Amino acid sequence: DFTVDNLKDTPLTIASAGVAELTTRAITEGQLIGRMEEPVAMSVWVEGSADKYNANNVEWVHNGTDWNSNSNSTVLYEGENKQKIYALYPYCEGATEDGKIAINATEQADYLIAKQNLIDENPIHLTMRHAFAKLSLMPTFGTEVGGLEIVSIEVKNMYASGTLNIKENTWTYQGEATATLAMTNHEVLVIPMEVCESFPIVITMNDGRVFKATISLAAVGNELKSNSQYKISLQIGQDKVTVGNITAAPWVAENGGNLETE
């Protein structure tokens, strides 16, 4: 049977950038909130058979209702399963034409990506995932401890920077895994590692005492995966820290959200 695609060569549009059941610190009540006076924007790549069907790191901005391209030229829809698309939030002017970006983990920016997929409909619905892994510390205090508070938590032997391949959702490391990252509110974002058996943490208390511990990842496959949250329980006693369970799960929220403004 011969079917005419009536949408061919019409403007390619993005209906939504769904975060599925994912959430970021920037999402409130299912909606992503842009910073004051700044747009909510993402980088978009489209690969087709001709220039009119392609886009290389084009900025798409959400105006509160719709996603719109900031390009001077309109990207056209080539037809079902004729093009591929991938995207990065937030928009990064420095991302390369082939979808790579150098990232500094110390900046603790939460990047969301939609890895390369065939475009099977127009408008498009994108599903975004976290490019980082998230470590969350769940501390409790022993009954003999009173009045103690955690002042700082440092996570060691992480990568300070790396190059993210947005198309494939893979990382290329820069340097060795020797960086120290500081937790905020008992959380830190880290560059994923295919192999990571353990890492040290240093906890400083308000009375000046410093506790050190090593977190084994044997129970979660000796790895740190993107789009995963690792919850680490430990108990702080009078003179030592005891590491408890560690669990890994998709970085999810009770309710999903959209990468869109209110």
Proportion of strand residues: over 45%
Largest sheet: 6 strands, antiparallel
Low-confidence stretches: 20-25, 27-31, 253-257
In percent, how helical is the residue content? under 10%
The count of β-strands is 21
Question: Could you say which structural class the secondary elements and strand pairing correspond to?
Answer: mainly beta
Our Rg estimate from Cα atoms comes to 21 Å
General description of the model:
About 6% of the residues have low confidence. The protein has 262 residues and is mainly beta. The protein has a six-stranded antiparallel beta sheet with strand order 6-5-4-7-9-11, with no helix packed on it. It has a four-stranded mixed beta sheet with strand order 17-12-20-21, with no helix packed on it. A four-stranded antiparallel beta sheet has the order 16-13-18-19, with no helix packed on it. It is elongated and about 70 Å long. The protein is 0% helix and 47% strand.
